[in-house]
Write a structure and sequence with these properties.
Layout: E1 2-3, H1 7-13, H2 19-27, E2 43-44, E3 50-55, H3 65-72, H4 75-78, E4 81-86, H5 93-99, E5 104-109, H6 110-118, E6 123-130, E7 136-140, E8 155-158, H7 162-174, E9 182-185, H8 190-195, E10 202-204, H9 206-214, E11 219-223, E12 234-240, H10 241-246, H11 248-267, H12 269-279, H13 286-300, H14 313-325
Parallel strand pairs: 1-4, 3-4, 3-5, 8-9
Antiparallel strand pairs: 2-3, 5-12, 6-12, 7-10, 7-11
Length: about 350
């Protein structure tokens, strides 16, 4: 296992960042895709291993336990690969991979990947870590809000992504609400604001809800899937078309090692969590890891097809159509799209059944 020398310091300095801020970077401007330049090329070392730079989509969290297992157990080495992690920073993994500054990476989720692809990034997704949407509309349990419709006209605290507000308002409307929520951008203060009653609702991930409840703030949540929103893949393995064409054996080997790691995480989460703590000893809270890992194993990792990491064409197209319906999918010139064919932006060709 190889980690870049700046990894720990950069991860610590980013400790307050979460997945939703990543949505902001890609949702607000297509120009982010051309903001980087450079060339990340895979080199073969004296040990015969090909070094692959791998861009993380955010700071280490429980969803990386399968990656950590594959690294700690030498699964990448078995495929002839030495992994060098690129920590999450101000430039999303989608941009780093598309621009050649990283060989492969994790796209935040299917929607950030689609936004990048539609605006000109030559990216392909090979593996989906999370098979289902991981976040939920959240209110304090002692609040008067008993259903999403009750949040019509109320205050949503978030990170500034138009995708967030679209999710919230779709849920309100689907539940019969007649007014949209008002947005307040609070970034890392979002969850503290909910706990203090300064906002009425947020979108929370399992670890966020756990932290709130550990602080004595019980919460009530609603799944987006119960209110007609499309399901979402999270943590997508991506490579650029240029890299995949030049190094097909690396992409294939990386995909298979990653799949094997997440298969292990699904079958023996304790072993994968132990690997995650060994790989990221200063970044993971064991209590949060244990709590979220159970949810991942029970709800987020299992694939409807039974193949770990598999992707379905319908899920891709439904999300593209949803983004188009909200004016959030634009081309390289920033013009809204009225259609986008997703049939060529993902593949399961390297997955083992």
């Amino acid at each position: 296992m190889t980690r870049s020398s700046s990894y720990i310091a950069a991860a610590r300095s980013s400790a307050a960042r979460r997945l939703l801020p990543c949505l902001v970077a890609l949702a607000t401007s297509a120009t982010v895709l051309t903001a980087c330049s450079g060339d990340a090329s895979s080199d073969t070392g004296a040990d015969g291993l090909t070094t692959v730079t791998f861009a993380l989509n955010y700071i280490p969290d429980p969803s990386l336990n399968g990656l950590a297992y594959a690294m700690e157990e030498g699964l990448f080495e078995e495929q002839g690969i030495d992994v060098e992690l690129v920590p999450y920073g101000s430039t999303p993994a989608e941009s780093l991979v598309a621009s050649g500054q990283a060989d492969l990476g994790l796209a935040t989720d299917i929607r950030t990947a689609l936004i990048a692809m539609a605006s000109g990034a030559d990216l392909t997704s090979y593996f989906a870590t999370y098979q289902h949407v991981p976040y939920a509309l959240t209110v304090l349990d002692d609040s008067p809000y008993q259903r999403p419709a009750d949040l019509a006209g109320k205050t949503y605290g978030g990170f500034g992504s138009p995708m967030e507000l679209a999710v919230v308002n779709d849920m309100i409307a689907a539940d019969g609400g007649d007014e949209e929520a008002e947005n307040v951008t609070l970034s890392t203060g979002t969850y503290d604001a909910l706990g203090a009653g300064r906002v009425d609702t947020v979108l929370s991930f399992p670890g966020d809800a756990f932290a709130l409840e550990q602080a004595g703030q019980k919460v009530r949540t609603w799944s987006t899937l119960d209110y007609d929103l499309p399901d979402v893949y999270g943590g997508l393995l991506i490579a650029s078309g240029a890299y995949a064409e030049e190094h097909p054996e690396v992409v294939e080997g990386f995909t298979r090692a990653l799949q094997e790691g997440y298969q292990a995480a699904l079958e023996d989460s304790a072993a994968a969590d132990e690997a995650a703590l060994a790989t990221f000893p200063d970044e993971l809270d064991p209590a949060v890891l244990d709590y979220v890992s159970t949810i991942q194993t029970d709800e987020l990792y299992p694939s409807p097809s039974g193949v770990v990491g598999a992707q379905d064409a319908a899920v891709w197209q439904e999300n593209a159509d949803w983004l188009i319906g909200h004016g959030l999918l634009v081309d390289a010139a920033g013009e809204p799209l009225d259609s986008f064919d997703t049939s060529t932006v993902f593949t399961d060709e390297y997955l083992q059944p």
